[in-house]
Design a protein that fits this description.
Strand 1 and strand 2 form a beta hairpin. Helices cover about 10% and strands about 35% of the residues. Strands 1, 2, 3, 4, 5, 6, 7 and 8 form an 8-stranded antiparallel beta sheet that branches. The two termini are about 25 Å apart. The protein is mainly beta. The chain is globular, with a radius of gyration of 15 Å. The structure holds a DNA duplex.
Length: about 170
Amino acid sequence: MVARELLGARLVRILDGVRLAGLILEVEAYIGEEDLGCHAKSGKTRRNAAMYGPPGHAYVYFTYGNHWMLNAVTGREGFPAAVLLRAIDPLEGVETMLQRRNGRDTLGPGKLTQALGIDASLNEADLCNQDSGLWIEAGTPGGDKDIIISPRVGLYTVPEPWKSMPWRFQMRRR
DNA sequence: AGCACGATGCTCT
DNA sequence: GAGCATCGTGCTT
């Protein structure tokens, strides 16, 4: 599954000419209109349109009045599927990220977007192209043994079996 | 046009 | 550990 491969990869962001990067530690998979936890559950809308686009691009959306979420689109064009990036371990530009986070950590989907300065302007950005200012580089292949698998977080009103699908993947921090 | 609520984070107890 | 901030989106009238 693509989600696992993203664990250990390096998320890179150029913000105001400064290179920021973090090791991807935690992700969640959202797959198709069948998946009632997925934003595409009721078809294509203006918000989730990016998920229907070509894979390798970003799907960025806003929630809870003040948080941006970053996803990597993984499904073939026309099939809505994405991986939510939930946590990173700062590697480059650590000071800048700390400052943007007010000294707090980057372990959380809304936290990492704040640290990296990610918002709607990066929706549909090409994550395989550095020109976008946001991309993903291959990381060190992590051993499968250190990966924690569990149900996705925050799906309070989502019916089973989707609510309990073990599509959350975490890597132990070094 | 109105309304309920969310793939969360922060603060205070 | 519980409560609230805060607003865009999608669904209902």
